[in-house]
Specification:
Largest sheet: 4 strands, antiparallel
Helix content: 10-25%
Number of domains: 2
CATH superfamily of the largest domain: Jelly Rolls
Low-confidence stretches: none
Mean pLDDT: 85
Order of helices and strands: HEEEEEEEEEE
Shape: elongated
CATH topology of the largest domain: Jelly Rolls
CATH architecture of the largest domain: Sandwich
Radius of gyration: 25 Å
Strand content: 35-45%
Strand order of the largest sheet: 1-9-4-7
Length: 137
């Protein structure tokens, strides 16, 4: 019987390796949700010397905001500001209301990704209670 013990260990080790390999494959699986050749990419460079207020709006696709100079207070539907300064990046989530406000000089680049034929941005009403997005910093 002692001759069978090493083979039982080998079978058990192989079973553990097989389960681990199967779990690894499941974690690495990918599913393509959308694959289109109908995508528009727009890169906009903006500069204002005396502040900026985007007004509440939303984008149909992601908007990547990269600040080169100055800083933004960016509000989303949570109504709490995120400060984005020079050298930092903020990604606006598709179809989520957003407001960007800057005081003083501001320079940034926005990369917009959306389907051809759609508007790059749509004005929307503020999701915040009156005045809640006012931040005097």
């Amino acid at each position: 019987m002692s001759a069978l013990r090493p083979s039982k260990r080998i079978v058990l080790a192989l079973a553990v390796i097989a389960v681990a390999a199967t779990a690894g494959v499941a974690v690495a699986a990918q599913t393509v949700v959308t694959d289109t050749d109908n995508v528009h990419l727009r890169i906009v460079k903006s500069q204002f010397d005396d502040g900026f207020d985007s007004g509440w709006h939303m984008h149909p696709g992601p908007a990547i905001v990269q600040v080169q100079e100055g800083r933004f207070k960016i509000f989303d539907s949570s109504c709490k500001p995120t400060t984005v300064g020079a050298g930092e990046t903020y990604i606006e989530v598709p179809n989520v209301p957003v407001l960007a406000v800057a005081k003083g000089e501001i320079e940034w680049t926005t990369t917009l990704i959306y389907e051809t034929g759609q508007a790059a941005a749509t004005p929307v009403a503020s999701p915040c209670p009156a005045g809640e997005e006012d931040d005097d910093d």
